[in-house]
Automatic annotation (TrEMBL), chain A:
<feature type="region of interest" description="Disordered">
    <location>
        <begin position="89"/>
        <end position="126"/>
    </location>
</feature>
<protein>
    <recommendedName>
        <fullName>Cell division protein FtsL</fullName>
    </recommendedName>
</protein>
<keyword id="KW-0175">Coiled coil</keyword>
<feature type="compositionally biased region" description="Basic and acidic residues">
    <location>
        <begin position="94"/>
        <end position="103"/>
    </location>
</feature>
<feature type="coiled-coil region">
    <location>
        <begin position="27"/>
        <end position="54"/>
    </location>
</feature>
From TrEMBL, chain B:
<dbReference type="Pfam" id="PF00905">
    <property type="entry name" value="Transpeptidase"/>
</dbReference>
<dbReference type="InterPro" id="IPR050515">
    <property type="entry name" value="Beta-lactam/transpept"/>
</dbReference>
<keyword id="KW-0645">Protease</keyword>
<keyword id="KW-0131">Cell cycle</keyword>
<dbReference type="GO" id="GO:0005886">
    <property type="term" value="C:plasma membrane"/>
</dbReference>
<keyword id="KW-0472">Membrane</keyword>
<dbReference type="GO" id="GO:0071555">
    <property type="term" value="P:cell wall organization"/>
</dbReference>
<dbReference type="InterPro" id="IPR036138">
    <property type="entry name" value="PBP_dimer_sf"/>
</dbReference>
<feature type="domain" description="Penicillin-binding protein transpeptidase">
    <location>
        <begin position="252"/>
        <end position="549"/>
    </location>
</feature>
Length: 126, 586
C-alpha cells in the first residue's frame, strides 16, 4: 500500500516537474521569437518612416508639376469654367430630334429611370 | 557519528567505576542498561537535527532552482524588455501640413567619430579615410586625430555605402554613431515657416525654434495650418513676379478669414532648410513676419472702417479733395487727383490721400490709435514664429501722424499683421490672431467692428476691383475685391526714395461671403514696358493675386458664382451719390 502511494506521489511529482520545465522552456522560446519579431517590426517601421519621407520628397508640388508638364501635356489645372451645377445640366427630352446644348452640341442619350434616381439621390446628398 | 556513540559508551563505563556507593550485581546490570539507552537516545536526536538542517538546505536550494528556472525573477532584466514593438522613438516629432503631407521629419543617419588615443598610425588612417570620404581632406583628418581629446567627430552624415567602405578599412579607434538628422522633404517650399535645427537637433528658427519644447516632448506629429499645394502656387507666382519686375524680394500670404489660419506664407528669397548653414542672411529674413513696412494705401481699408464704425462718416459723406492738403511744411497729394469733393466710397476707390487724411482728421488721434491697437498693429504679432517684427509708430502721435497713417505712411507693420487686420474687416468684424498651427476646436475671435461696417468694406473692396485700381486682380467667377498699396521706402537719411517702392495688393474672395484673404507684396519692383513703366501695386502685385486665386479656388473646390445674378448684385450694390447712379459692384 505504502509503495503504491509512494509510486503515485513520485509519478505526480515527476509529471509536475516535467510539465513545469516543459512550459518554462516553451515560454522562453516564444519570448525569444517575440523579441525577434519586435525587432523586425521596429526595423520595418524605420524603413516605413524613410519611405514616407521619400514619398513626400518625390511628391513635391514643383516636381509633380514638371512631370505633368512633360508627360501629360493635355492635363491642365482645373479652371473656374469647368465647374457647373447639376441644375445647369440639361435633361434629355423624348423627342425624335436629339437634344442639343445651348451651344448646339448634341447630347448623348442619358437618364434611364435608374440613372435618374441615382442622379436625384446624388443631388439630395449634396 | 559512530565514534561519538562509542565515546559516550566509554564515558558511561568510566563513570560506572567512579561512584563510591555499593550496588548488587542485579542493580548493577540494570543501571548499565539504562545508561546505554540514554546514550543512544542522545545520538538519535542529534542525527535528526542534523538531517533536518541538511534537508532544509537542500529544499531551499531546490526551491530556488525552480524559482530561477521556471518563474521569472523580477529583479533580472527580461530579454523582451530590450525590444518592444512600440513606434519608433524620435528625438523630435514630425511636422505635417494641413492635409498630412510630411514637411519635416527625423531620419536616422550614421556619423563617424574617432578616439585619437586608439589610432595607431595617424597619417595612414587619415590618407585611407580621405580616399573613401572625398569631402574630407587628409590633412584635416590628421589634424583632428592628433588632438588630445578622447572623442572627435570626423563626419556627421555618412551614406550607407560610405559607412560600408569605412568599415572595410578596419582602422581601430573609429566608431560609428547613429544619430537623428532633421530632414525637410519639401526643400525650399516652407523654409520660413519651418525654420531649421542645429546639427544637434535644437530648433534655431521658425516653428522649430518657437515650438521646440512641444516637438521634443510630443509623439504625435505637429499639424500646421499651411497647405503645401497653395504654398507652391503662391511661391511660383511670386517668383514669376520677382523675375518679371526685377524685385529684390516678395511676400505672399493666404489666410482663412474665418479662423485666422494661415494657408500659405512665402517670403522670397528663401533657402533650403536642409542646408541652412549655406543660406545668406537676406534669404533667411522672413519678410512676412519679421519685416515691418509702411504698407501704403491698403491702410485706407482700416481708415474707412473705423470712420464708418464710429459714425464719423457715412459712405455718402463728402470730403474736400479739391487741392493738396497742407499740414505745416507737409503737403498731402493725390496720385490720381480728382480735384473735387469726394464721397467716402470715392475716396476709397480712387485711393485719395487727401480725402483719407480729412477723414482721419475728423476721426481724431485717440480713436485711430485705439482702433489700430485693437487690430494689434502696435504690438508684435503673436504668430508661432520667433521672427516677429516690432511695429514702428510715432512716439508722440501728432495730428500730422494721424493724417499720414490714414493712408499707410508713418506706421510700419509686418505683412502678417496687415493680413489679419484685413481678414477682420471682411469676415463680419471678428479679429482672429494669425496662426500656423491647425487646431481641431473653433478658435475664438474678438469683435472689433460691426457686421454692417464689414459689409460696407466688402462692397468697397469689390467696387475697387471693378471701377478702381484693382482690375488686374480679378479672377472670373470668384468675385475678388481688394485694395492696392504702394509705399515709397525710407532711405538712409530718413527721406522717401521715390523710385524704390513696396507695392502690394490685398484681396479677399468671394466678396459676398469672404473665405480667404490673399496678399502679395513686392519689394522694389521695376516697371516694364507691359506696365508702361509703372511699378505700383495695381500693376505688379494685383496680377499675381489674380493668378493665385484662379489656381487656388478650383483646387479648394469653391464653386464660381455668376456676378450678374440678382442675389450677387443685391449683396454688393453700392450707391455713389455724386454721380446719381447706383453702381452694381460685380
Amino acid at each position: 500500500m505504502k509503495i503504491i502511494a509512494f509510486a503515485i506521489w513520485s509519478l505526480a511529482a515527476a509529471t509536475a516537474g516535467y510539465a513545469l520545465f516543459y512550459v518554462s522552456y516553451q515560454v522562453e522560446a516564444l519570448e525569444q521569437e517575440l523579441a525577434i519579431l519586435n525587432r523586425q517590426i521596429l526595423k520595418e517601421q524605420e524603413s516605413l518612416h524613410v519611405l514616407e519621407a521619400e514619398w513626400s520628397y518625390l511628391t513635391r508640388p514643383d516636381r509633380l508639376q514638371k512631370l505633368t508638364h512633360e508627360l501629360l501635356p493635355e492635363l491642365t489645372p482645373v479652371t473656374a469654367e469647368q465647374f457647373t451645377s447639376l441644375d445647369a445640366l440639361p435633361y434629355r427630352t423624348n423627342t425624335k430630334e436629339s437634344p442639343r446644348t445651348r451651344d448646339g452640341m448634341p447630347i448623348p442619350p442619358i437618364a434611364t429611370p435608374e440613372q435618374k434616381s441615382r442622379r436625384a439621390s446624388y443631388k439630395g446628398g449634396q | 557519528m559512530m565514534r561519538r556513540l562509542l565515546q559516550s559508551m566509554e564515558n558511561a563505563r568510566s563513570r560506572r567505576q567512579e561512584p563510591v556507593e555499593f550496588r548488587t550485581p542485579a542493580e548493577h546490570a540494570l543501571h548499565e542498561e539504562g545508561l546505554f539507552k540514554q546514550a543512544i537516545e542522545t545520538g538519535r536526536t542529534r542525527v535528526l537535527i542534523t538531517g533536518a538542517v541538511m534537508a532544509l538546505a537542500f529544499a531551499v536550494v531546490g526551491i530556488r532552482l525552480i524559482d530561477v528556472t521556471a518563474f521569472n525573477n523580477p529583479s533580472e532584466p527580461r530579454v523582451t524588455h530590450a525590444v518592444s514593438a512600440s513606434t519608433v522613438k524620435k528625438e523630435r516629432a514630425d511636422i505635417v501640413d494641413r492635409n498630412g503631407t510630411l514637411v519635416a521629419t527625423a531620419l536616422k543617419t550614421v556619423g563617424l567619430s574617432a578616439d585619437p588615443k586608439k589610432i595607431m598610425d595617424i597619417q595612414e588612417a587619415a590618407s585611407k579615410l580621405a580616399a573613401v570620404l572625398p569631402d574630407l581632406s587628409a590633412a584635416d583628418i590628421a589634424r583632428k586625430l592628433s588632438s588630445d581629446s578622447r572623442f572627435v567627430w570626423l563626419h556627421r552624415k555618412l551614406t550607407p555605402y560610405q559607412q560600408w567602405e569605412v568599415n572595410r578599412l578596419g582602422i581601430p579607434g573609429l566608431d560609428f554613431r547613429t544619430q537623428e538628422t532633421r530632414v525637410y522633404p519639401q526643400g525650399n517650399l516652407m523654409s520660413h515657416v519651418l525654420g531649421f535645427t542645429s546639427i544637434d537637433n535644437n530648433g534655431l528658427a521658425g516653428i522649430e525654434k518657437k515650438l521646440d519644447q512641444t516637438l521634443r516632448s510630443s509623439t504625435q506629429p505637429l499639424k500646421l495650418s499651411v497647405d503645401v499645394r497653395l504654398q507652391h502656387i503662391m511661391r511660383q507666382e511670386l517668383q514669376a513676379a520677382v523675375t518679371e519686375f526685377d524685385a529684390i524680394g516678395a511676400t505672399g500670404i493666404i489666410m482663412d478669414v474665418n479662423n485666422g489660419e494661415i494657408l500659405s506664407m512665402v517670403s522670397l528669397p528663401d533657402f533650403d532648410p536642409n542646408d541652412a548653414g549655406k543660406a545668406t542672411d537676406d534669404s533667411r529674413f522672413n519678410r512676412a513676419t519679421l519685416g515691418v513696412y509702411e504698407l501704403g494705401s491698403t491702410f485706407k481699408i482700416f481708415n474707412t472702417a473705423v470712420a464708418l464704425d464710429t459714425g464719423t462718416a457715412k459712405l455718402s459723406s463728402q470730403f474736400d479733395a479739391t487741392k493738396p492738403l497742407r499740414v505745416g511744411r507737409f503737403a498731402i497729394r493725390d496720385y490720381h487727383a480728382k480735384n473735387r469733393w469726394l464721397s467716402v466710397s470715392e475716396i476709397f476707390i480712387y485711393s485719395s490721400n487727401i480725402g483719407s487724411a480729412r477723414i482721419a482728421n475728423e476721426l481724431g488721434t485717440a480713436s485711430q490709435r485705439e482702433f489700430l491697437a485693437k487690430l494689434g498693429f502696435l504690438t508684435p504679432s503673436s504668430i508661432e514664429l520667433p521672427e516677429v517684427g516690432q511695429p514702428l509708430y510715432p512716439k508722440v502721435w501728432r495730428p500730422v501722424n494721424t493724417m499720414t497713417i490714414s493712408y499707410g505712411h508713418g506706421l510700419a507693420v509686418s505683412p502678417i499683421q496687415l493680413v489679419s487686420g484685413v481678414s477682420a474687416m471682411v469676415n463680419g468684424g471678428t479679429f482672429y490672431q494669425p496662426t500656423l498651427v491647425r487646431s481641431d476646436t473653433d478658435r475664438n475671435g474678438e469683435r472689433i467692428i460691426s457686421e454692417s461696417t464689414s459689409n460696407a468694406i466688402r462692397k468697397l473692396m469689390r467696387l475697387n476691383n471693378i471701377e478702381g485700381s484693382g482690375k488686374a486682380s480679378n479672377a472670373k467667377g470668384y468675385l475678388v475685391g481688394g485694395k492696392t498699396g504702394t509705399a515709397e521706402k525710407v532711405g538712409a537719411r530718413g527721406t522717401y526714395r521715390k523710385k524704390d517702392l513696396i507695392s502690394s495688393y490685398v484681396a479677399a474672395f468671394p466678396m459676398n461671403a469672404p473665405r480667404y484673404v490673399v496678399y502679395v507684396n513686392l519689394d522694389e519692383p521695376r516697371g516694364t514696358k507691359k506696365t508702361f513703366g509703372y511699378a505700383t501695386g495695381g500693376w505688379v502685385a494685383a496680377p499675381a493675386v489674380s493668378q493665385v486665386i484662379k489656381q487656388m479656388a478650383p483646387m479648394l473646390g469653391i464653386p464660381p458664382q455668376d456676378p450678374e445674378s440678382p442675389e450677387i448684385r443685391q449683396a454688393l450694390a453700392i450707391k455713389l451719390p455724386n454721380q446719381g447712379k447706383t453702381l452694381a459692384s460685380f
